User: What shape does this take?
Amino acid sequence: MSFAAPAGLLFLLAVPLLVLLEAARRTPLEANVSAASLWRGLLRPAGAGNRRSRFALDWAARARVAAAALAALAAAEPFVAGGTREARVRIVVDRSASMGADAGEGRTRLSLAIERTIAWLASVPESAPVLVEAVPCGEGAVALDAAGARAFLAALDVSDAPLPDAGLVAIAAAAPGTILVSDRVPEAGAPDRTIAHGLPAENAGFVAFEVEPVAGDRVKLWALVRNSGRRATERALTAFGDSSLSLGTLVLAPGEARAVTAEVGVAPAKAVGLRLGGEDALAADDEVRALPGSDRVRAVAEHGTPEPVLRALAAAGGVSIAFPAERGEPSADADLTVGAGAAEGQAFRIRIDPPGGAAFEPASVRATEALASDLDLTGVRIGPVAPTAAASGDRPLLLARAADGVEVAAAVERDGGWRLLFDPAAGNWKDHPSFPVFFAVAVERARAKSARFAFLRTGEALPGGGCVARSGIVEGGRGARIAANLLSAEESSLEGTVTAAPPAPAPVPGEPTPLAAHGFALAAGLVVVSLLLERRR
Amino acid sequence: MTRRKLAAAGGAGRPAGTPPAGPADDPFGADFFAGLARLRRRVALGRGGGGGGRPGRGAAPRGVEFRDHRPYAAGDDVHAIDWSVLARLDRPFVKVFRDEERGSLSLLLDATASMGFGAPRKDFLARRIAAACALAALAGGTRVRASRGGDPPARRDFAGRTAAPALLAFLRAPLGGGGAALGRALDGLARARHGPLLLVSDFLDAQPLLASLARLASRGARALLVLVQARGEREPSAAGNVRLVDAETGEVLEGVIDESGAVASAERARGIEEEVRRFAARRGWPFVFARSDRPFEEAALEAIRGLEGLR
Assistant: This one.
């Protein structure tokens, strides 16, 4: 035991004084006896006798003296040294895409790194605590023993997500003594590392990707391909959409980057993208793709939009409705425009103009077909209904029965768009089941016609939580399907280094155990005991 | 040292100046009667199986001068019933003869304050021994003149089994007074000749008491001496700084009790035993030593047998 404040031991000098005071204050125990004759002449005068008996204390006094001694010792802040304990080992494994690069002999960089890390763990005592974490897209640090850590590492798999150097620096600085298992060396604060396999490898991959809609159902694809290897590479390039289109062979010199473009058709629920054929060390960046359709259809409701129409659009789901301040100023990037006035020919917009001319009160509305999703909703207007309103070439969408019993087209598909020939808020159509269906189909059509192609990068957070670890179709958000692509120049670089494994961690001094609180508590307890003993006297 | 331990050494643990109280617990509880039953069986066995409750022959000797009648009490010898009186009065009476002196027992119980000490108290054991002997006498047709040596003194006669409850109530009386009261009670008994004497005491005021007994002995009296001491008087322990107050005289002793003092006090207590034992032996009297922490049956049996030897 040692003392953090040895000066407190000086209080022990008061203990002998306390013994003297206790001996001096001893009050005689009063009691009746059967006969004084049994004791007469046998009592020694108080204070006489040998030194030992003179200072003999009763148990209450002894308790108080002991309490004072304990309090004096506690004032000196005693502590017991913590000895040594096994050092905690922290291992952070880089499972970013570059760790999936071929390391030869059928192994990837990650599998080779894990092999060497597991071998290094043999030098760690089995009982030593091990903190293991995989980044990116990991579930956080996991506390295990050596055996558990080996099992954890063996189950790790590479991801398609990038890990920027800044992330590595942060990991290295987070805790000293961190074992970083990676193929890259952070410039600042290099921690101990085990395994970094940086054999020069051949790799060409996409480092940028964009999709631009063009007329009709076609999109223009643009990508940047870079050869990150040290040798020239020849890779077959293919574009895909509603069909595959070979773009020939791409020949890249070491370090060369080249832009590629292609135009493909869009098919619903089918991805569009580019693909590099052949094999190289890193497959994660050999394909980029996107899915048509956006997460939400952007609708603009202009002045005069009937309320039932707004409710129907909102009920369709996935629609964000905006109300522009200026009447007649359509939103340039809206998927749907509902209301008065619109310019002709704007792609992928539905416009419902306010009624004009004679009022029309349809006695009933009948859909001529099931409003299939492949209908083109370009340009829908509302106008007076006349028996001749349905011009040749119009494809009727809704039929209404007039008062005289004649069926007339109430909505037609015309010029690539949908047109309502009456006020949708008037009459009884808004109570008909076909009413919300009509507008839900319109929303889906607008979604399919949307010019925006959304995609996520691997490593990014998903809208509903989680991390995009793999490229491919990912279900996220409100069930919208989005594709995740790898677009990381860093991860496409396969330069790496090899370092030696660090030595086994040495035991570290344990935490000292302070005893002052215990000492004071014991002293207080002894004081209570002495009071109880005094009461019993 | 706690008051309880000091009580074992001779102190009762009560603050000085507090008058001694009566028995905290009834000495004649259920366990006493259970012990009494066991005692009776042992006494009967000792007599060869004879009943211990019936008066039997010899309780009222024949041919002795007739003195008086007294009402028949349960347990009296039926041969002593005067049938002519029964015929006349239609109520049974027994004859009382002159030689009834041999059919009586004088009992003197030390009820001074010093008897109230010990753990258990000395008077607890003393009352039980006295009651056992007296009840045995009553059951055997012997009259009992019981006296309490204390403050206030008391004396009362008991006869027949029906007197047992009254006898026990008499023996339950609280303690009080000092050795002088006991001496006066003893002198009172000396003036009236009533058969053998049973004295149950702690003999702490030994000299005056033995002097009174010596006077009794000179007149031909016979006595059974029962000395009662507490374990704490025989085995005291060191108590440190103390202020002792004599419960009877109020004398105060202050000082420190150490090991040597405790040993010397124990020697004094044993000295009292030796002195009383020698006194009794010189006069051919039976002597019984009893410790308050031991069952009463052994001492009571020894006393009953001693009394039988005296008759």
Summary: Residues 259-282 of chain B form the longest helix (24 residues). The longest strand of chain B covers residues 104-110.
